[in-house]
Design a protein that fits this description.
With 610 residues, this protein is α+β, with helices and mostly antiparallel strands. It contains 19 helices and 19 strands. The strands form 4 sheets. Strands 12, 13, 14, 15, 16, 17, 18 and 19 form an 8-stranded mixed beta sheet that branches. It has a 5-stranded mixed beta sheet with strand order 9-8-7-10-11. A 3-stranded antiparallel beta sheet has the order 2-1-3. The longest helix is centred in the middle third of the chain and has 36 residues, at 351-386. It starts with a helix and ends in a 5-residue tail after the last helix.
């Protein structure tokens, strides 16, 4: 045991046997892991006793230089504090939930004639929000089904603005739409249909059927048979919607079921969101690196309900100890402002729900394992044919694109294993040359890329790649190798050589060609990389060119120079928006006087655009 680990072990053994949060740091002082425990001494000392449970924990311990800790009065308090610290530091070894901005919501707008729309952000605007859901496709499907069941319009028109502009469509004739476009429906009457949609989204669909049934019977008693028939059709549409969904429990059941599958390589946590006895949405989170402990599990479940509204009851399969469930219950109750009970199901009627969620998690783990096996095979073959020292985890590929001597752009794409990681894609606007020179452009790109990591320590470039692939041949590779040597970085670099049909036929360094045409899987893998980097570089160059054309068009207007042209496009969003802007909207922008605004309006009025 080395001196550092011995120091950390002794420090851990001096910790108290009380609840608290521990914060692991590397040699630079960066926080790499945050955890909590009911007994700090027991938990933290395990890390440095040489009994790491899995490879991920072992790697984390290898990077720990020191740790801090914060004592708490209760395990619930420790869970809440841990959640705050994970958000604050975003440690690399904590299992992470997708950021809230990635989760779509269904919103009922606050308007005279409310609409059902998909949004990515909750705002304090008086609207009603439901979700979040796992994808925009899920939201669109739910909106379509709910609108059909509540007979709301799905045509995209905005009311009352579009009332009377067009004739009613066929959906009114077949009873699928209440047709506010006719002008025959008041805002109050339309609100009744929106209320049905609201109740369905709240998960009280059975109550809505009962309410509509009562209204139907009342209308029938009043001899208003047309209205009664309308209620009947809405009830049938609701029942048809429910028939499509899988009923898993009694109609009054609204809860979440959580199933966990974990082995030495993969952990999957599966959520079933059950409303009115039916599964309305599912979500699965996959983590490689092996088994996760009960404390990590409770912390992750807590993070899920930071972006979701917790129901009154959450069922969890028996991987979560009762003590952790109790602390989680207290935390979520405080977070949501209502009583939330987290129950570990070992028997009873709800055990089957957690068993189903756990089966789903196990199946997702099986698919992930098969995918990882394929990924390992193809990356292993790539390392073998290129004679790499390590199997590449991070691959970066570069391509230069330009429009003659203008808008010279380098695109960088990134692969995490065999998957494109679009959040790490970057574009470099070439500055060192004013004319077309692919080699000079590539040298500038790679130099800037390397220095962003080694010199600037930019968070946008947190690590160097294991392999660089260039859209070019041996001369490109030689140019890049020279830059790497100057920067003191040793990275494998290969070019993707094209055949007469513009498809990759081989990989090359500055000395040899490596034929990959006989290996179909490897050929397709490299071909996908080449197509993607070319697409990305071309797209970004074209965007830059279009922006230049728009700016130059605006600069023809008296009083508009490059700075004001950029201001107009950035503030208003597009050339069309500038064209359609009113005098008041234009003069509200800084630097746009009444005279300049009138020049803009007159310019577009006379049709002087390119």
């Amino acid at each position: 045991m080395n001196d550092r680990i011995e120091y950390l072990r002794k420090k851990a053994l001096r910790l108290p046997l009380t609840p608290g949060v521990y914060i692991m740091k590397n040699s630079r002082g960066d926080v790499i892991y945050v955890g909590k425990s009911a007994s700090l001494k027991n938990r933290v000392s395990q890390y440095f006793s040489g009994s790491a449970k899995n490879a991920k924990t072992a790697r984390m311990v290898e990077n720990v230089y020191d740790f801090d800790y914060i004592l708490c009065d209760t395990e619930t308090e420790a869970l809440a504090l841990e959640n705050v610290k994970i958000k604050q530091f975003e440690p690399r070894y904590n299992i992470k939930l997708k950021d809230d901005k990635n989760y779509p919501y269904i919103k009922i707008t606050r308007e005279e004639f409310p609409r059902l729309i998909t949004v990515r952000k909750r705002e304090q605007d008086g609207g009603q929000y439901f979700g979040p859901y796992t994808s925009s496709a899920t939201c669109r499907g739910i909106i379509r089904s709910v609108s059909q069941a509540a007979t709301l319009p799905t045509c995209g028109k905005t009311f009352p603005k579009d009332i009377g502009r067009t004739r009613p469509c066929i959906y009114r004739q077949i009873g699928r739409c209440c047709a506010p476009c006719t002008g025959e429906l008041s805002a109050e009457q339309y609100g009744e249909y929106v209320r049905s949609a609201e109740n369905i989204l709240k998960g009280t669909g059975t109550d809505e059927i009962k309410r509509l049934t009562s209204l139907m019977e009342q209308a029938s008693d009043d001899l208003n048979f047309e209205l009664a028939a309308n209620y009947r059709d809405r009830i049938n549409a609701l029942k048809a919607l429910f028939d499509k969904q899988k009923v898993v429990s009694s109609p009054d059941t609204s809860l979440d079921a959580v199933g966990i599958y974990s082995d030495d390589a993969i952990t999957v946590i599966s959520f079933f969101f059950i409303r009115s006895g039916m599964i309305t949405d599912t979500e699965a989170h996959e983590f490689t690196g092996g088994h996760i402990g009960s404390e990590e599990l409770s912390s992750f479940i807590a993070s899920v309900y930071d972006v979701r509204e917790a129901p009154k009851e959450i069922l969890v399969s028996d991987e979560l100890p009762p003590s952790e469930a109790e602390a989680l219950s207290d935390h979520l109750s405080k977070l949501s402002g209502k009583k939330v009970e987290v129950r570990v199901t070992q028997r009873g009627k709800y055990r089957a729900l957690c068993a189903m969620a756990k089966e789903n998690a196990a199946y997702r783990a099986k698919l992930l394992r098969e995918s990882n096996d394929k990924e390992t095979q193809i990356l292993g073959r790539l390392a073998q044919v290129l004679r790499l020292e390590v199997v590449p985890d991070r691959i970066e590929s570069y391509d230069i694109s330009n429009f003659g001597n203008d808008n010279i752009t380098a695109g960088m794409i990134v692969l995490d294993g065999t998957k494109f990681k679009k959040s790490d894609y970057r574009v470099f606007n070439i500055k060192s040359t004013e004319y077309e020179d692919d080699y000079a452009s590539m040298r500038e790109t790679i130099r800037r890329r390397i220095r962003n990591t080694t010199v600037k320590k930019s968070p946008a470039f947190p690590m160097l790649p294991d392999l660089i692939l260039l859209d070019g041949g041996k001369t490109h590779v030689a140019a890049v190798r020279a830059v790497l040597e100057e920067e003191g970085v040793d990275l494998p670099v290969f070019g993707m050589v094209k055949d007469d049909y513009h498809k990759t036929r081989a990989l090359c360094d500055d000395e040899r060609d490596v034929d990959i045409s006989h290996d179909r899987q490897l050929f397709m893998f490299i071909y996908r990389i080449q197509e993607e980097v070319h697409r990305f570089a071309i797209t970004r160059m074209s965007q830059a060119k279009r922006k230049t054309l728009k700016t130059s068009s605006l600069e023809k207007i008296p009083g508009i120079g490059p700075a004001k042209a950029k201001l107009l496009l950035s503030r208003l969003g597009s050339l069309r928006a500038v064209k359609e802007a009113t005098l008041e909207e234009l003069t509200a922008l800084p630097g746009i006087t009444d005279g300049i605004a009138k020049n803009i309006i007159e310019h577009f009025k006379e049709g002087k655009t390119e």
